[in-house]
């Protein structure tokens, strides 16, 4: 395999991971709201349509209260930042593994990465000549989650 092809494939893989990060940051607050509403709806359905303050409090901040309790009743900025960063990166890692994992076993292998790269390369090589020309690249040079293609080369979300 030529060096330029290897570099292009490495760039596509890296750009996909970066795109995942940007997508995660853009949708974090929306996901938090959805999660809060799901927890409140569940608490209400479990209580015949009404919830007490204690049920509301449990639904809203159970994880935060657990962090405080796990840290002796006090939580510093550094401890909270570490917990938030860990949770964010765990979510990103889950999405990346889900995207690349071809066997569905929850692990990432070199074969999984190569398989994903081949899929993306084939999708970008629209004229099937074994090379990606500049005109075949997405407009604006964006990779990752891109509305122009789905994973099969059809229009939709590229994942």
UniProtKB/TrEMBL annotation:
Residues 127-159 are annotated as: Disordered. This is EF-hand domain-containing protein. It comes from Mesorhizobium kowhaii. SUPFAM superfamilies: EF-hand. Keywords: Signal. Residues 127-139 have a biased composition (Basic and acidic residues). InterPro entries: EF-hand-dom_pair (IPR011992), EF_Hand_1_Ca_BS (IPR018247). Residues 1-24 form the signal peptide.
